[in-house]
Amino acid sequence: MESKHGRRQPRLLSEPERARLDEFQDLIHYSNRYADDTFEYRHVTLPKNMLKAIPKDYFDSETGTLRILLEDEWRGLGITQSLGWEHYETHTPEPHILLFKRPKDYN
Fold first, then answer.
1. Domain boundaries of the chain, sorted by first residue
2. Which end of the chain has the lower number of beta carbons within 10 A, N or C?
3. In CATH, which of 3.30.170.10, 3.40.50.300, 1.10.3720.10, 3.30.70.2330 is domain 28-103?
4. 24 near 49, Cβ under 8 Å?
5. Residues 11-57: pLDDT tens digits?
6. Strand partners of residue 39
7. Which whole-number Å values give the CA distances from 67 to 54, 55, 60, 83, in the listed order?
């Protein structure tokens, strides 16, 4: 869904969808941060069974993996991180692993 300014609008979860995901929140694993000269990175591993509870329109129909999620979307899944993180890739061989980055000097 795009706004009138051409930016994609987040597809927020309904209450029943959110309730189905609550049981997985404590099982989400966050990697340590790692960095290059520009960005710091981390990956977030969702429990594999959680993928079955995520709405189908959160997935890319061509690859079958989660599409790139906007911040309101990944936070709605129960992923909790400090500000500035951007979901930039899903690890195709392991679709339950989401890759995040943010500028190295982000405060």
1. 28-103
2. C
3. 3.30.170.10
4. yes
5. 999 999 999 999 999 999 999 999 999 999 999 999 999 999 999 99
6. 103
7. 12, 12, 5, 20
What is the C-alpha to C-alpha distance for residues 31 and 41, in angstroms, rounded to an integer?
Answer: 9
77 neighbors 21 (Cβ within 8 angstroms): yes
Q: Which residues of 66-98 are buried (b: 16+ CB within 10 A; e: fewer)?
A: bbbbbeebbebbbbeeeeebebeebeeeebbbb
User: Residue written as tokens 């309730």?
Assistant: 19
Least Cα distance to 40 among 90, 85, 96, 92 occurs for 85
What is this structure's pTM?
Answer: 0.88
Dihedral pair phi/psi, residue 82, rounded to 5°: -65, 175
Distance between CA atoms of residues 47 and 20, nearest Å:
13
